[in-house]
Amino acid sequence: MSAINWRGVDLNLLVAFSALMETRSVTKAADKLSIGQSAMSHNLSRLRGLLDDPLFERQGHQMIATDRALELAPVVDQILQMVTSQVLRPGTFVPDQYDGTFRIGLTDYAELLFAPALFDAIQAAAPRSQLSFCNVDRNNYQRAAEEQKIDLIIGSMTDIPREFDHQYLYTEDHVCLFDPSATGLGSPIDLARYIQTPQALVTPDGKLATNVDNQLQQQGFQRHIAVGSSSFLTIRHLLTGRNLLCVVSTLMAKLDVFHDNLCQCSPPVHIPDFDINMLWLQRNAAHPRQEWLRRCVHHAVTERVEELRKLH
């Protein structure tokens, strides 16, 4: 490797060699590549020095290729074809032939809502692939994307850093969820009953307070957070048969997970809606595999949201 004059290696020389092999004429090769005859002669001289072989010898009006040139011709054609198809032009992604792994980062919320739909959509189109769901949250998704080689992320991330691209998926709102027989509550719930009822909180960061508590405090009220968990499934289990109320996202409340008789209604306090986005590392955005995955995921999520919103 150290003996090779890499500074003298120029892809243009391979293009010139290919043209000379095809035309067997410096003049015709120059015309084919739209360069001057002197430039083509210079390229031939550089090729001869680089490869230590005359390559082409003039006999009358024709240039005869040497044995070395004939040996190199198919190799050079293969190199040029590879550069054209695999380097200069992005390849096409064929999902039903892909046997690699898709890695999708999902918040607890997104995994519960969309994991089955994403699995079905990706497996239908890419049956030989593997799918890995990686749990992420607002605090760790940037690190997880790098360390776990995550292809894309779904969640309610805000203040997205510039190394990520993102696409808006939909906007989510909130409802109160409770067991009417255990709480004695009905719909609608007024502010007094809301404050009096012990509450469960889905809390990804472990804090037992939210902006709702700040809002209530400004109005001179305080609610009682009886229990918190980062897992919606845990909170959902706790609500059945207990005097507990929880404010959750509307789509979460519609999940048919437990076949119980919980009720839902609008909260008596203002809770801002939140956007759900799809994120991916900007440096990988143009890869055909990534482009296909984003289209597939966007379609699956959109269909699932529409399906859930039709449920009562």
TrEMBL record:
<dbReference type="InterPro" id="IPR000847">
    <property type="entry name" value="LysR_HTH_N"/>
</dbReference>
<dbReference type="Pfam" id="PF00126">
    <property type="entry name" value="HTH_1"/>
</dbReference>
<dbReference type="InterPro" id="IPR005119">
    <property type="entry name" value="LysR_subst-bd"/>
</dbReference>
<keyword id="KW-0805">Transcription regulation</keyword>
<dbReference type="InterPro" id="IPR050389">
    <property type="entry name" value="LysR-type_TF"/>
</dbReference>
<feature type="domain" description="HTH lysR-type">
    <location>
        <begin position="9"/>
        <end position="66"/>
    </location>
</feature>
<dbReference type="GO" id="GO:0003677">
    <property type="term" value="F:DNA binding"/>
</dbReference>
<protein>
    <submittedName>
        <fullName>LysR family transcriptional regulator</fullName>
    </submittedName>
</protein>
<comment type="similarity">
    <text>Belongs to the LysR transcriptional regulatory family.</text>
</comment>
<dbReference type="GO" id="GO:0003700">
    <property type="term" value="F:DNA-binding transcription factor activity"/>
</dbReference>
<dbReference type="InterPro" id="IPR036390">
    <property type="entry name" value="WH_DNA-bd_sf"/>
</dbReference>
<dbReference type="Pfam" id="PF03466">
    <property type="entry name" value="LysR_substrate"/>
</dbReference>
<keyword id="KW-0238">DNA-binding</keyword>
<keyword id="KW-0804">Transcription</keyword>
<dbReference type="InterPro" id="IPR036388">
    <property type="entry name" value="WH-like_DNA-bd_sf"/>
</dbReference>
